[in-house]
Amino acid sequence: MNSALQFNNSPYTAFMHETKVDLGNGIELHVEAGGNPEHPPIMLVMGLGAQMLYWPDFFCKSLIDQGYRVIRFDNRDIGLSSKIRNKGPRLNTLKLMGRFMLGLENQGAPYNLHDMAEDVSLLIDRMGLDKVNIIGASMGGMIAQILSAKYPEKINKLGLMFTSNNQPLLPPPFPKQLFSLIGKPESHDEEGIVNHSLKVFNIIGSPGYINQLEAIQTARKLYQRSYYPAGVLQQFLAILCTGSLLNLDKQIQKETLVVHGSCDRLLPPSHGKAVAKAISGAKFELIDGMGHDIPPHFIPYISGLFADHFNS
User: pTM of the predicted model, to two decimals?
Assistant: First the structure.
């Protein structure tokens, strides 16, 4: 680990410590790390519009207890990391989505997923890490695929959760799930945003496994920590302007475990299967009853799967 980095206690999680890391490319990422610095690192990359606190504490602690150092961070444009002010023209999101589904190229976003993967690559360097195990969820899984293809020397093994390689003609997200994610809240005060977040959790999450009280507390905590809807839209445009990762998947030589929920209606399981099929030797694990989230019920099993995968 880079000893020059100054870590403070996390205000959110007793066993994590936070710091800011200047990447040297104009971006500063807000990072938390927990566990023994001597243990092998697992870097967690979160999805679209999701702050690092979407990685449940219980999930992080489970990995730490199994002998890993766990690092999570806010991607650019979200949480406490740098925000990107876009000077460019407004893009027609629906038109981009249509082209994206057909595998046609889009351009014009302020940045794309390659830029976000570059952030993670620089973060690994700045933290003085030699090689990391990586778990990417959803959009974070797309970033992790790019990273593993472009910077194999920085990655030990690859773990992916409810993600996609966005190859053409995969079944689209169910409309209700997609529009919950990119829809507008009724109001922009705390209650309006918390209600909206709760609705999203319930629509994309694992049916029957969502604790409503916890979900409200989480939504409130996230809102109070940072609310930046422009960043969510820009990250969505980044996905649309990156397009298919199929050719990159074919270059990945890392041992890969792809985990997907059977009840995921945002990215149906065929997306995860497509990734596993495209990456040589990848293993695919379908979790019965899980949606597009990481509820406590599934954490002991999933964290065990990843810990075993990285350890094998």
Answer: 0.97
Q: Which two tokens stand for residue 68?
A: 């890993």
Q: What is the pLDDT of residue 312?
A: 85
Q: How far apart are CA 20 and CA 34, in angstroms?
A: 15
- At 45-97, the pLDDT tens digits run 999 999 999 999 999 999 999 999 999 999 999 999 999 988 778 899 889 98
CA–CA distance from 286 to each of 17, 232, 278, 294 (Å)? 33, 28, 17, 13
| Per-residue buried b or exposed e for 233-261, using 16+ beta carbons within 10 Å of the residue's own CB | bbbbbbbbbbbbbbebbeebebbbbbbbb
**pLDDT tens, residue by residue, 214-261:** 999 999 999 999 999 999 999 999 999 999 999 999 999 999 999 999
Measure the N-to-C terminal CA separation of the chain; round to a whole number of Å: 23
229, 184 Cβ separation under 8 angstroms: no
Nearest-angstrom CA–CA distance, 256 and 265: 23
Strand pairing category for 28-34 and 16-22? antiparallel
| pLDDT per position as a tens digit, 39-57 | 999 999 999 999 999 999 9
Query: Distances in Å between the alpha carbon of 111 and those of 86, 122, 188?
Result: 9, 16, 26
Question: Which domains does the chain carry?
Answer: 8-311 (3.40.50.1820)
